[in-house]
Amino acid sequence: MAVPLSFEFFPPKTPEGTAKLRAARQRLYAAGPAFCSVTYGAGGSTQEGTFATVAEILAEGVPAAAHFSCIGATRERVRAQLSTLQAMGVRRLVALRGDLPSGYGLGGEFTYASDLVAFIRAEFGAAFHIEVAAYPEMHPQARSPQADLQAFVAKVRAGADSAITQYFYNTDAYFRFVDDVYALGVDVPVVPGIMPITNTAQLMRFSDACGAEIPRWIRLRLQAYGDDVASIRAFGLEVVTDLCDQLRTAGVPGLHFYTMNQAEPTLEILRRLDLVPHAT
Ligand code: FAD
Q1: Per-residue confidence at 1, pLDDT binned at 50, 70, 90?
Q2: CA of 99 to the centre of ligand 1 (A)
Q3: CA distance 175 to 261
Q4: Ligand 1 lined by 54 (C-beta under 6 Å)
Q5: Cystine design at 41: which of 35, 102, 115, 171 (Cβ 3.0–4.6 Å)?
Q6: What are the structural domains, with CATH classification, of the chain?
Q7: Could you tell me the pTM of the whole model?
């Protein structure tokens, strides 16, 4: 059963990283992604890096989405940067509040992602398809689960077209989130974000920071493998393939892979799901 795919990359910081990402993208294009997105600010990357990577993807003939965070930004700066993206041919944005210091710095004119979405719609009309972030396991700074759901609904009411979730390994959290926001009147696609498991320490670090839960049974198994990278990868592949299969069977509107700029972990999951030819 086919499902629309999208792949997320971060802007490389070195010429070697740029070359590796180009090669990874070419391999992933075999899966026919609906679009590829490029993060902004995460890990200290610059907006120039995001724009440059987005430009390369567009030049490769693939639709590209620029992540765009507003924390610390002025309206004037956001207007200018969005105009640049529009002139480059970008038609899709992932509109985010972001986190300091990943954004522009202090003294900004936007408080929440919903302010950015409303601004984009007011200034650029329908020029961009706007994606927003969703948190099935709750954003770590949210006052309460209910407040977080309302914050998500506010982003959609401000004009978002669709959403991509933080990664999760509990499908129930995703299905409940979707049921809850649909009950609140949201009717945009909410695409699950998928994080392949390849490195225990990195996964623990990310998950602590972003509030994604690693279920106890997964965490304990990963920790028990210690430095046995082959076993971690084999187990991670089984877990994440099974997660994707459950989501696909349930009819999710797409799967968005956090590729970490690597082709193979995502491709191997897609091969097992018969979403790419096995020779890919
Ligand atoms: P918001 O939707 O503004 O929410 C932030 C917090 O404010 C939440 O706790 C929410 O409950 C609360 N809130 C919102 N509105 C209100 C309100 N009106 N009143 C009270 N509380 C409110 N980070 C990067 O640095 N670069 C990236 O490229 C990037 N890409 C991402 C892509 C995806 C798909 C996801 C899921 C996350 C990404 N992030 C990225 C992380 C993101 O920047 C952080 O999670 C950030 O802390 C929140 O951004 P947001 O757009 O979800 O914020």
Answers
A1: confident
A2: 8
A3: 28
A4: no
A5: 102
A6: 5-272 (3.20.20.220)
A7: 0.97
